[in-house]
Amino acid sequence: MPNRQKQAGNMTDYPLPYASQDLTGQVALVTGATSGLGWRFSQVLANAGAKVVVGGRRKERLDELVALIQKNGGEAAAATVDMTDSESIIGFVEAGDKAFGTPTILVNNAGIPDAQRATKMPIDLIDRVFDTNLRGPFVLATEVARRLMDAKKPGRMVNISSAAAFLYSGEGAALYSVTKAGIVRMTEALAVEWARFNINVNAIAPGAFQSEMMDGMLERVGDISKGMPRKRICDPALLDSSLLFLCSSASEAVTGTVIRADDGQNPR
Fold it and tell me: 3 forms bridges with which residues in the sheet?
């Protein structure tokens, strides 16, 4: 990822078009990689040339994903991570550093639902949702940022929020909505703080996309797609272009932005 300081009007060092999505030489960390969006994101980044460290709690699924990436010509390594445990999070970053060098891309994707009304949630579930969805991603982002600053390298961070950050139906999952709104504000705040270090922090807020979490929701409440404008649950592949844009040199001037990829499901 180039780090250029340009004078106004001087664009001679920028090729035309300046919009490469080649991630060769980059080291990416992806959490929540054992299924759903993280499973797809890991393969997309590897296909673009990044060396990918996949993280999650299920070691067998991580190993399966690494084998799949390697089969398709990519480079990957697996490291388990518990997003509720700070030591585990730091260990995950260290594992990535040991495998491929300083991580330059972070996809903060891990998250869990609450699926309950606020007054029905036991305290241990409140803690688990907060820690997994908000506290853990904050700890992980700061750990990666420290290493980038020490190495004087630019970086890209993509935090995965949700359309629920902007609209809540009132039918359960209030805390999930709160934590995903927190991810949006975290993105905006860290983008400002770290801009001078050439660390870009952005977010994607997906609507209803295929995943294990979505499968569980559909089992509980039925087919929600009937009430959507396009009457569909989106395929994770539809996020490929947004992810690659935010992880590549094409987004050099973009930081603190949230891409709302909700398929028109939520009114603005």
Answer: none
- Please name each of the domains of the chain with its CATH number: 27-208+236-261 (3.40.50.720)
Q: What is the pLDDT of residues 172-198, one digit of tens each?
A: 689 999 999 999 999 999 999 999 999
Per residue in 80-107, pLDDT (tens digit) is 999 999 999 999 999 999 999 999 999 9
Q: Greater confidence, 213 or 44?
A: 44
The two counts, helices (H) then strands (E), for the chain are: 8, 7
> Cα(191)–Cα(217) distance, rounded to whole angstroms?
32
Question: Side chain identity at 239, as an amino acid letter?
Answer: L
- Active centre residues (catalytic): 176
Mean pLDDT of the chain: 89
Looking up tokens 């029905």 gives 120
- Contacts (Cβ under 8 Å, ≥6 apart) of 81: 31, 55, 56, 57, 88, 89, 91, 92, 110
Please check whether residue 148 is in contact with residue 104, taking contact to mean a CB–CB distance below 8 angstroms: yes
Ordered strands of the 27-30 beta sheet? 75-80, 51-56, 27-30, 105-108, 155-160, 199-206, 258-261
Cα-Cα end-to-end distance for the chain: 33
How many CB atoms are closer than 10 A to CB 230?
11
Q: Averaged over 127-141, what is the pLDDT?
A: 97
- Asked whether the CA dihedral 71, 72, 77, 79 is positive or negative, the reply is negative
**Close Cβ partners of 47 (under 8 Å, ≥ 6 residues apart):** 72, 74
**What's this model's pTM, rounded to 2 decimal places?**
0.89
Residue 18 is encoded by which pair of tokens? 């300046």
Contact (CB, 8 A) for 265 and 163: yes
The beta strands (E) that lie in the chain are given as 27-30, 51-56, 75-80, 105-108, 155-160, 199-206, 258-261
